[in-house]
Design a protein that fits this description.
about 375 residues; alpha/beta; Dihydrodipicolinate Reductase, domain 2; 2 domains; 10 helices; 17 strands; about 30% strand; globular
């Protein structure tokens, strides 16, 4: 590797890649060297459109072949936002070529494929990370500290997460997230992955022992071979008595909420995946009191909002920039961080257990 910048190759022109194009530019330790698509023209159009808003420090090459991009000498790290059903092949190819891998989520069709991808990167001595941006949020770190210290809500007893948006008829019929070949996990993969990850963080990275889960409403795109979860719910049990639930949906209005209930109060986050458009990220602690005196019954509100200075996106301290910067540090300093592939495997393991339970009509299964 030469120079002080991590040189990125984008394997696809997916919409989310535009956000990470800007994140690379703002990271301070990276630049986009090349973008690959199924045609050079499509890759060049993506480069032109992104450059018109956010320029890279050097020219970016348009490539008409994924394999060609992976073999380029001016690429250190590969960003892979391809559909889930296509990712394994290219993660393995990138690892074989000695390239570090940042891959979108859900990572794989199943746990076996995810393990193969992670193991290939480990064997090649390259960093593997999935694209959960809030993993790198300072707000998340502060909330986890509060839970660990038990200073805000006491002993954590219940975790509830909800991530949804309402896709119109065009989305339900034509979006790849309703195609069983490209995105077999539907809303569970696209949205539930975040709910599972947030649950893991809140639980101190302990794994649940059992899950029960069910597709509430299936969806099937017009060209899809089968159905995918369009609305999904799950319940998790942990060894220490902690319980958790999550709900995700392509049929319910925008909601990205977390409710953490403890022995002394509860904590809420209203935008845990994509923070509201603001210069700070907040959470609220609640410790309401029920006062009873003979005939007088009063339920007194005690809520306190907390926040840290952290932009929602598109700024040097936002979570997606922190993600890209952290990844770049691993590459430039040649120090792999095993926490990130471990988080991926934990999340995939729970997702697979949810699918097994769903297939068994909501039967309780071991994780």
């Amino acid at each position: 590797m030469t120079g002080a910048l991590c040189r990125w190759g984008f394997l696809s022109t997916a919409a989310i890649a535009r956000k990470n194009w800007k994140a690379v530019r703002l990271s301070g330790n990276g630049r986009v060297s090349a973008v690959a698509s199924r045609s050079v023209g499509k890759a060049q159009a993506f480069i032109d459109e992104c450059s018109a808003e956010v320029s890279q420090p050097q020219d970016v090459s348009a490539v008409g072949s994924y394999a060609e991009l992976i073999e380029r000498e001016d690429v250190d790290a590969i960003y892979i936002p391809l559909p889930t059903g296509l990712r394994k092949e290219w993660v393995l190819a990138a690892a074989k070529a000695g390239k570090h891998v940042l891959v979108e989520k859900p990572v794989a069709n199943n746990l076996q494929d995810a393990q193969e991808m992670v193991e290939a990167c480990a064997a090649a001595g390259v960093q593997f990370m999935d694209g959960v941006m809030f993993d790198h949020s300072k707000r998340l770190a502060e909330v986890c500290k509060l839970l660990e210290s038990k200073s805000a809500i006491g002993n954590l007893r219940r975790i509830s997460t909800h991530f949804s948006f309402s896709g119109d008829n065009s989305f339900q019929q034509s979006n790849i997230r309703t195609d069983s070949n490209l995105e077999p996990h539907g809303c569970l993969g696209d949205l539930g992955w975040y709910c599972i990850r947030m649950t893991l963080w809140a639980a101190g990275l302990q794994m649940p022992t059992h899950v029960t889960a069910r597709t509430v409403t299936p969806l099937q795109g017009k060209d899809s071979a089968g159905q995918v979860p369009g609305e999904f719910s799950a319940e998790m049990q942990f060894a220490d008595g902690l319980s958790a639930a999550f709900y995700c949906s392509f049929l319910t209005s925008n909601q990205q909420t977390v409710l953490l209930s403890g022995s002394d109060g509860y904590l809420t986050v209203d935008d845990f995946v994509m923070p509201f458009y603001d210069a700070e990220a907040s959470w609220t602690e609640h410790g309401h009191v029920l006062e009873i005196e003979n005939c007088r019954w009063n339920f007194r509100r005690h809520s306190h909002r907390n926040a840290i200075a952290e932009y929602a996106s598109g700024e040097p301290n936002s979570s997606e920039v922190n993600m890209v910067r952290t990844f770049g540090q691993c590459v430039l300093e040649e120090t792999l961080d095993s926490r990130y592939p471990e988080l991926t495997i934990m999340t995939q393991r729970i997702l697979d257990a949810c699918r097994r339970s769903d297939a068994a009509d909501g039967t309780r299964v071991e994780v």
